Amino acid sequence: MVNFYIKKKKKIKRNKSINIKEIKFRPVTNKNDFNIKIKNTKRLLKKGNKIRIIIKFKGREIIHKNIAFNMLNKIKEKLSKISQLIFFSRKTENRQIIMILNPKNK
Question: Exposed, middle or buried: residue 19 (CB in 10 Å: 0-12, 13-18, 19+)?
């Protein structure tokens, strides 16, 4: 009988854990795809998930880092009402730039 309660408590703890979801962009992501990804990101933030936004470079795109930083700033502005910034990478790591957002507490 005791084992049943221990298993039940572990299951409840597992269900309450916060998931980190990843949304991937590229510097050449067009306007419509960008808006759809922002919409999905808002939906995930409202559910209470943390979001890791990754901008991935391919080939010679790595030269145009300023496009990626502008895109990240634009994302940050669009999601500022429902999220807070935890981490914003100023360096490229393995051909990608990372930003992590946390949902705002109400």
Answer: exposed
